[in-house]
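Example record

One chain of 488 residues, shown exactly as stored in the release files.
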Amino acid sequence: MIIPFGEWLPDLPPLGNAGALEALNVIPRDGSYRPFPGFESISSPLNSRCRGATSASDKNGANYTYGGDAAKLYRLVDTAMTDASKPGGYSLSAPALWEFASWGETVIAASIDAPLQTITLGGTQFADLVTSTRKPKANHIAVVREFVVLGNVTDSVDGAVPHRVWWSAAGDASNFDPNAATESDFQDLVGGGGAVMKVVGGEYGVIVQRRAISRMSYEGPPTIFRFDQVESNRGAIAAGAVANVGQSVFYIADDGIYRFEGAASVPIGRNKVDAAFFADLDQAHLDQVSAAVDPVNALVLWAYPGAGNVGGTPNRLLLHNWATGAFARAEVETEFLFRALAGGYSLDGLDSISTNLDALTASLDSSLWQGGTLQLGGFTPAHRLGYFTGAPLDAVIETAEQQFFPASRSFVRSVMPLVDSASAVSVEVGIRDTQGSAPVWGDPAAVGPLGRADVRAAARYHRFRVTVSGGFAHALGIDAIARPEGAR
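Predicted structure tokens for this chain:
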């Protein structure tokens, strides 16, 4: 009997589940799973925990990567995270983060505990950006049309205003003085939505608050921007819980995982993964959640601290394929997740990683060392930049529970994983006779040269766990041979 793995649906009962009970270290695809790659660090470390990172390209196609910790901003030079801070550096408080926005041939960095910073792509040092009289600092930054937009701000005149959105003069990122002629101004969002948690840029802005979402539309003078609250009583639980693909905004709210399409939010985790995710999430460290997009694999990923985390450092990844709607998960420690552009490395530059080419973390023809490739990037708990381009992690996929013969126990003697892999594959069988008892798992059985694992498992209910230690192209399901118990 062929049993497809199906999509990961841990929130549904094991028996009769239309999908899989486990999908660990795999990428959900249309009808199958693919392996999830390991993490390869390539840089010298930051001085402390990464608080934010970004990559940007200049007009000639050269790529640059920047990151920040509590005291410094850095630029990647070959494999060295090099101090690019303004003189005197910075002093971010414990929860404060860095956010970045690309503005022409520059990158702007924002933090509530530092003046807005700017660096020219290819330049060596950040500097204060704002030259106007009003100099807002902000937790969040994005570019909407020809405006730099800040959210959750503070300045010397009004102090901290968490529900304020403030935009620059049109075409001038250095000027934040409210003025009808330049079109710079700010708007305090009313309605109890709470602090701004993220600003998503584009042709129009999406303002995600703690308990509301608003659309920011350009109208020109005198209003400049119109704000329409299109989602009430629902917003993001953390700044790092939001990611976007164009104007599609994915976020984690108090009651589940959602996709916002400009007019309303659609639940994407309900009756799938919401309950399992929140049962695992360590909500004492929400400030360390981060999110990123992997457009190559059509994935939105959230790094979060789950059970067993150390000091709040994220040790889990939640994966969502926005094309199919399916989820999966991975167990990887990463203190920050972001979409990166590999800058490319010379042979001389590789010396900073290892003077022995055979000792490099990836082969010389790996995309890791190539310039311009889009990568899923992150920082290790040792504060080192890296990419998810390593060897496949050990994949574990578990089928739903099966009752092969109604009102009868059955005996399973052989299981053939439908996984096209030359790697080591093993199968475990979980059995129970009542729905009120916990499954008992047998020892792993290796798959032999004929592609099957020989097992002996008699019970009323069976489930199957397949582990692949190495790469594979597709994991589809299993083919189990079962007979009614006692039949000849």
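Notes: Residues 268 and 327 are 9 Å apart (CA to CA).
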